[in-house]
Design a protein that fits this description.
Order of helices and strands of chain B: HHHHHEHEEHHHHEHHHH
Helix content of chain B: over 70%
Shape of chain B: globular
Distance between the termini of chain B: 14 Å
Number of helices of chain B: 14
Strand content of chain B: under 5%
Number of strands of chain A: 2
Oligomer: heterodimer
Number of strands of chain B: 4
Largest sheet of chain B: 2 strands, antiparallel
Strand order of the largest sheet of chain A: 1-2
Shape of chain A: globular
Amino acid sequence: MNRPLALRIVAFVVLLGLIGAFFSLTAPDFTSTRNLMMILHNMSRDGVTALGLTFVIVVRKADLSFPGVTALSSMVCGWLIAADQPVLVSIAGAIAVAAVCGAVSGGAVAFGKLPDMIVTIAVSSITYGLGFLPSMGATIFDNFMSSGFDDIGDSRILGVNEPVFIMFTLYAVGWWILHRTRYGRGFYATGENPVSARFAGIRVRAYVMASFVLCAVGVAWAGILHIAEAGAADVTVGGTSLLPAYASVFLGAALFAEASVPATLAGTLLIATLLNGFSLMNMPLYAMQAISGIVLVLAITAFSPSVGAAVRGLFRTAKEASVQP
Amino acid sequence: MSSSEAIKRMDFGVRWREWTAPLGFVTFLIAFAVALALLNPAFTSGANINSMLRTASISAIMFMGATWVFASGKIDVGFFQIAAVTDVLVAVLLQQGFGWPVACCAALSVGVLIGLFNGVLIAYLGLESLIVTLSVGGIAMAAAMAMGHGTSVTIYDNGFVGQFLAFSFGYVPAVALLAGGLYLLAWGVQEHMLLGHYFYAMADNERAVVEAGVPSKRITLILFTISGAAASLAGVLLAANLQSGQPQIGNSYFLDSLTAILLGAMASKRKKASVPGTLLGILFLVFLLNGTTQLGWFDWQQQIAKGCLLFLSTIIVARGSLRRPVRRAVTHSSRNV
C-alpha cells in the first residue's frame, strides 16, 4: 500500500474525470457554470460535516450523533432568530449548543471510557428530543427573511458564495492544524496507539474530546446553512447527513491511504459530484442514501488490505506464468 | 483434583449469581408495571397486554441476531433496515399477485442474503462492522423507498401470517410463543453450545481466539446471517401486523434495539449482551412506551427518556466490565470447563 502520492493524485483526478465524463454525457446541464457552482454550494454544507468527522475518524472513533445534534442546534438557531437576536449571535448560540453536545459525547467517550457508538446514539436521541423544546416541534420561520438570515447562503465574496468561501477557509485551517502543528500529530498519535501516545506526553483524552467537539461544530454549521437555505428550521433537518459524510471521509481515506484533510476534501468533491449528477438525472432524494452507501462499501472493499493482497497475488501468479514458459 | 473441585464450586457460585443477578431488574420491571397499572388502570386491560406482547415479540425476533452480533464485540446498525426492506418486499409481492408463501420465502432469502453479504465483508475482508452495516442499511432503506415509490404499500389480504398474528391463547398471542421459543433455543445455544462460548470470547480478544483455532471468521459470518434472517422474519411479521409495507419503519427501531440490548446487558451478571437480557430490555421499553403514551407523553419526551436510559445502562455496563476484570476472567474460564 505504499504507492507514491503522485499516483494517488492521478487516481483521484482520473476518477473525478470519469465521473465528470459520465455525467456530462448523460446529463447535459452538468458542465454548466451554474451547476458547477451548485456542486460547490452543496459541498459547502456536507464538506464541513465531513471535515469535522475527519478528526473523529483520525482518533479512530465514530460519531453517530449527527441527526440529533443537527436538529437541536438548528432549532436553537431558528429560535434565537425568531426572538429577534442578531444573525451572528444566533449562529454563535447554535454552535455553542453543538459544542456542548460534542463535549458531552466526547467527554463520556474520553473520560468516562464509554463505547463511542452507543454514547453518540444516546446523545443523538436526547438532543433530538431537546430540539422539540424551543417551539414544541413546530417549524420556525419568523424573522428568517427580515433578519437577513436567509441570505447567508447567497452573499458572495469574489464571485463565490460565502459558505463556499468559509468552507475553503475551514479546510485550510483544518489542514494547518492537522498537518502542520504538533496538535495534529497529537490527533494521529492518539488514533494510532493511545497508550504509547499517552506515554509520549500527549493528552489523549483531551484530543478525543476535542475531536468530538469539532465534529459537532461542523455538523451544526451544516445545519445552519441548511435552514438558511430552506428558510425554516425543522427538527427533521439533517436526518440524512450521516451517510454522505462517512462516505466522503472513507472514500478520501481509501484514495489517499489514510484519513486526512486533503483526502476528505477529495472525497467530499467526489461524493458531491456524484450526488449532483444523479440528482440531475432526476433520481429521488432517497436514492442519494443508496449511492452514498454503495460508494462507501465499494471504497472500503476496494482498498481493504486483504483485497489488495489478493490482487497483488493475482499479478504475481500472472507474472510467474509469463516468465515460466 | 482439588482444583477442579474448586472450579466446580466456583462454577456453581458463578452460575448461581448469573441466575440471581437479573432478579433485581426483574423486580424493578414488575414494580414498574405495577406503578403504571396504578397510574392508569387501562394498562392491565386484556387488549393492552395482548397488544404489548405482540409488539414486544416482533421486536424480540428482530433484535435476536443483533444481540449476538453485539455480544461478539461487533455492531449491526443496519438490521432494522433489513426488516424495513423485507416488510416492503412482502407488500409489493402481494400487490403483484404472488401469495403469502412466495412473499415470505422471498423476504427471508433476501434477509439471509443481505446478512451473508454483511458477514462476508466483515469477516473475510476484515472491514469495520459499523461502516459496512451503516452503508448496507442505507442501501436497504433506499431500496425499500424505491420499491414503495417513497410511500407505504397497502396489504389487502393478511393471509396465514395475519391469522397467526391475530391468534391468541387468552391474553398471550401466538407470536409471543414463537418469540419465546426462539429465545429459549437461542439461550440454549448461547449458554451450552460452543458457538455461544466462542462469540463471547471473540468480544474479549479476537486474536487470542483465532490463535486458539476457533473459526472466528465463520462465526462472524454466521452471526451476521442470523441477524439478517431474524430481521427479515420480523419484517414479514411487521407486514402482516401493519397491513402495509412501511419503508421508513426501520428508523424507529434503531434506538430501541440498542437500548434494549444495553438494558439487558446491564441487568445480567456478566454485564454482557445476552438473549434473555434483551428480552427483559424489550419488555421494559414496551412497558415504558405504552405506559407513557397512555399518560399523554409526546414522542420527543420518550426519545429523551430512551436516550437517557441508553446512556445510563451504557455507564453501568462499562463500569461493570471495567471494575471486575478478575472475576470476569474467572467467569469465562469456568464457562469453558
